[in-house]
Predict the 3D structure of the following.
Amino acid sequence: MNVLRNLLDKQKPLFEKGGKLEKFYYAFEAGDTFLFTPNTTAGKHGTHIHDAIDLKRMMITVVIAMVPALLFGIYNVGHTHFLAVGELAEATFMDKILIGGIAVLPIVIVSYAAGGLVEVVFAIIRRHPINEGFLVSGMLIAIIMPPTLPLWQVALSAIFAVVIAKEVFGGTGMNVLNVAMTARAFLYFAYPGDMSGDVWYYLGDKQYADGFSGATPLAVAAEAVALDGAQPVAATLAGFQDGLFTFWNMTLGLIPGSIGSTSFIAVMIGAVILVATGVGSWKIIVSGFAGVYILGLILNLAGANEYMSMPAHYHFVMGGVAFGIVFMATDPVSAAHTEWGKWVYGLLIGIITVIIRVMNPAYPEGIMLAVLFMNVFAPLIDHYVVQANKKRRLQRATV
């Protein structure tokens, strides 16, 4: 490491003021501070609070929390590929990891490369340091995509999200909308054929096994409602394709879906890491799941269609609800910031998600729109919470 440190120190004058590469200083500074701790210190006079946490460490913590979902996603892509082509019995663990890695890792690399390039360009133009926010967004964008998505669409969505959802608002810490959810929304409405349908299992030049369908559990549930079948949605899921969508399978995550969002268990491991480190708000996570479950129970009582009669806890393990609540709703920039506001914000995300799913089977997933919708209303929620606090304090003061 000393050799690398000395090499960077020798090159640094070229990037400082007056150097030949002065305009690229912030690109150099980003690489330097990523590899080594900055040598800047607080002033010698006055009181200065020192803390081990900074933006880089905070972002790295979120990336670490996503690792279980990413690793399981790689395995699941390989597992479901061999299931689809009828070769699951012959496939070894390493076969599944190899196939999954070939499909997933290029998506992660392209997401980071495309979005990171935009970050560097804006930093150079605006002459400000490159922030570490995209360490998280780049990973999130990649693992909420289907594994068969063309790489050029991954790059396009990352560029669109960074420019439209982040840089036009001023960069890291200024965005109104969650960057990764914006990327997914862009692709969902621009290229719906690649983002939904039977696209989850097929990889390479092999074809589906006879009679196999690549539908997701949400698509199966929505189709059951659309056909107005007499069989309950839960029973339809459990019996689909020799029990592929049993509750246990959906909890474990061995089902088709976006790369990192299928395993409820892996996502909840990430949730524990976020809450334990104080990076993610447990209030938003708890209230988000509460909103899903409470409305699910209420709709069970209504029972207007078979989707409404589905057990409320099924919503937790179907689609991207768990991943969206844990990693998207807790975004410290676009979420509510007041303590009571976090409860309201999370609760409404859960409620809106179920409303979109159940009331509109043509659009089976709801977490994406729910998070983006509440991102817009988060400042309003905080405003009313602050106003209520001020009013309460004024009343105490006049007593």
Summary: The mean pLDDT is 83.
